[in-house]
Write a structure and sequence with these properties.
The structure holds two protein chains of two kinds. Chain A is mainly α. Chain A has 14 helices and three strands. The longest helix of chain A has 23 residues. Chain B has one domain. The chains are: A mainly alpha, B mainly alpha.
């Protein structure tokens, strides 16, 4: 009996030892898996971005691009985030919405910029979406909701438009898991604090849109798809309270006003 | 593995065939049931249940075949659900995952080779006892019902 138990343990030990020894090899690098998955994500990013650009015009005004670049640059520099992979796009759409797509595409609707009262509110939303990108929530969510095989078929052009539409809607108009949302909120607030931007206006923005939701539900997509706005506003406020004493403005007041005026012209 | 014959007499042609089939069942089930890890376990279990009142030689080998599938079932199940979580939840393939799948493959291959060898030997009426599984079978399978 003792011999059999000992032999059983030996077999289990042999298996775990084999696993441990094999795990010392960097298979991901050896088999170029990182490169392949990066390529897949890049293709998906292009597929989705092209889908959104078909229905909404991309704003390419120089002043607007420069302003958005300044905001993203400041957030990335302050938080040691690689700026290159983040591609920001402002699309002409009245919905109060902003979302992240695969391969670092960050889409902001003009409706969102128009609805914020100050720059810090916009920075809050941008930081939240950058956090989703940095924490790899986008691909995780897509895989969970759509399935890896369907996603792979999209990259090879074997997928029909219904599937792409469904996947695009998953990205733009439905929230991540509550846990992921909270993680992105808190990570976003950390980015704001490091960039020396006061997070309190972002908490106010959440709270305000949570209230406005009842009055204009069709436009306030970002909040209606991100549930528990009040609860989020509370923990964002709590987490960011008194962390930034003298918050700064990334854009000058003149640039900010000119961006707002530019969007209101259309 | 050792080849000690602990029965009193050599198995008959029918017994050798039935004992050999218990190993073949798991091999056929692997081919039919991939990638589901439970199919080969179910196949050997059914064969064991069908032969549990047979002669000692047949019962003994059915039990050994069934026990050997149990450990593979654990290894393969873990690998299967890990793969499922990559496909449907978090699409991150890590070196740790690849190492596990390779280790599982090595164990499956070893088991496959040993199973084929044992199936051939038992068909000839030669008794084959596996390391660990043989000892465990001895503890569980008694000469008289």
């Amino acid at each position: 009996m003792k011999k059999v138990i000992l032999q059983g343990f030996s077999i289990a030990l042999l298996f775990f030892a084999t696993w441990f020894i094999l795990a010392q090899v960097d298979w991901v690098d050896l088999l170029n898996i990182r490169k392949v998955s990066a390529k897949t994500e890049e293709r998906l990013g292009t597929v989705f971005y092209n889908w959104f650009r078909k229905s909404d015009l991309e704003r390419s005004d120089r002043a607007l691009s420069k302003a958005m670049d300044s905001i993203i640059n400041q957030i990335c520099t302050s938080n040691n985030i690689e700026r290159g992979p983040i591609k920001v796009h402002v699309l002409e759409n009245p919905q109060v919405n902003g979302f992240a797509l695969p391969d670092g595409h960050l889409v902001i609707y003009t409706g969102l910029i128009n609805s914020v009262e100050n720059e810090a509110e916009l920075v809050g939303v941008v930081c939240h979406e950058i956090a989703h990108i940095q924490l790899n929530h986008v691909m995780n969510k897509l895989t969970k909701e759509i399935g890896l095989s369907v996603l792979l078929s999209m990259t090879t052009g074997n997928s029909n438009s219904t599937v792409i539409t469904k996947a695009a809607k998953v990205l733009s108009s439905s929230a991540f898991d509550r846990e992921l949302e909270k993680a992105a909120d808190l990570e976003g607030v950390r980015y704001m604090i490091k960039a020396n931007v006061n997070p309190e206006p972002f908490a106010n923005f959440l709270s305000k849109l949570g209230n406005d939701k009842e009055e204009m539900p069709e436009y306030v997509t970002w909040v209606s798809t991100h549930p528990q706005s009040k609860e989020r506003a509370e923990y964002v406020e709590k987490y960011g309270k008194n962390k930034v004493k003298h918050g700064r403005q990334i854009l000058s007041a003149q640039t900010w006003n000119s961006v707002r005026a530019l969007l209101k012209q259309r | 593995m050792n080849h000690v014959l602990d029965q009193n007499a050599l198995p008959t042609e029918h017994e050798a065939e039935a004992a050999s089939s218990s190993y073949l069942m798991s091999l056929i089930a692997i081919i039919a049931g991939l990638p589901l890890p439970i199919v080969n376990l179910i196949a050997t279990l059914i064969f064991y249940l069908a032969n549990r009142k047979s002669t000692y030689f047949v019962r003994w080998h059915c039990t050994q075949a069934l026990l050997s599938q149990c450990s593979l079932f654990l290894i393969n199940s873990y690998g299967f659900w890990w793969s499922m979580s990559i496909l449907f939840r978090e699409p991150t393939i890590t070196s740790n995952y690849i190492a596990y799948m390779l280790a599982a493959f090595i164990f499956n291959l070893t088991e496959f080779i040993v199973t084929v060898y044992t199936a051939i030997q038992t068909r000839k009426g030669i008794h084959v006892e596996w390391w660990f599984y043989g000892g465990l079978t001895k503890l569980l399978c008694k000469p008289y019902l």
